[in-house]
Amino acid sequence: MKANLLHRFLSEIFVIFTVLLIFSTSAFAQNRQDDDGEEPEEEISEIGQQLGVELYPSDASDYCVEEGLQIRVTVTNVTDEGILKLELFGEDNFLRKSGKLRLIRVPAENGPQNLCINVPVPGSYAVVGYHDIDGDRRLKKAWNFKPLEPYGLSNNPEIKALRLPKYSETSFDVPLTGTDITINLVDLSK
């Protein structure tokens, strides 16, 4: 009788241990995933290895070409820690993962930073950016979804309420010769 109780107890401990091991392994795997929840297939870039942050060759900014079909972005209020991230959106699925047209991550530098994003066709676009200070590839948010790291949007709309900005507040037109925009990052945690 005591042997049955001991056997049942040890079996339950084994099951609990196995479940904990599975959850801790999947939590570790999640840390390696990108924003889309998928495992990056490429190796960390040379600059990422030098700085000790998770940057991949596909994260790089496009080459800036004067008069090219691209958005030339100047980002202000950046310091030299972590990663600067920009996301390009069209009107469909604005601010949703499924709506991202292009994603750029580069090492953050002091002062204004210039980055370029090639666009497929002339048209209406919006750019969202944030300064990932700790370099964990995620925007930290408070319980009410208020960003805890500096962020900004094209057209620099003033956010007065706890709501996501509308596409009409952030969108701009990109002609064949491209366009220049400035995004002023705002730190709401200060």
Overview of the molecule:
The protein is α+β, with helices and mostly antiparallel strands. The protein has 2 domains: 1-32; 46-184, no CATH class. Helices cover 22% and strands 26% of the residues. The chain contains 3 helices and 8 strands. The protein has helices at 2-32, 46-51, 167-170; strands at residues 70-76, 83-89, 100-107, 113-118, 123-132, 151-153, 172-174, 179-184. The strands form 2 sheets. Strands 2, 3, 5, 6 and 7 form a 5-stranded antiparallel sheet that branches. The chain has a 3-stranded mixed sheet with strand order 4-1-8, with no helix packed on it. The longest helix has 31 residues, at 2-32. The chain is globular.
Write a concise keyword list for the protein shown above.
190 residues; alpha+beta; three-stranded mixed beta sheet; 3 helices
Mean pLDDT: 80
Helix content: 10-25%
Q: What's the shape?
A: globular
Number of domains: 2
Quick summary of this structure?
The protein is of the alpha+beta class. It has helices at 2-32, 46-51, 167-170, and strands at residues 70-76, 83-89, 100-107, 113-118, 123-132, 151-153, 172-174, 179-184.
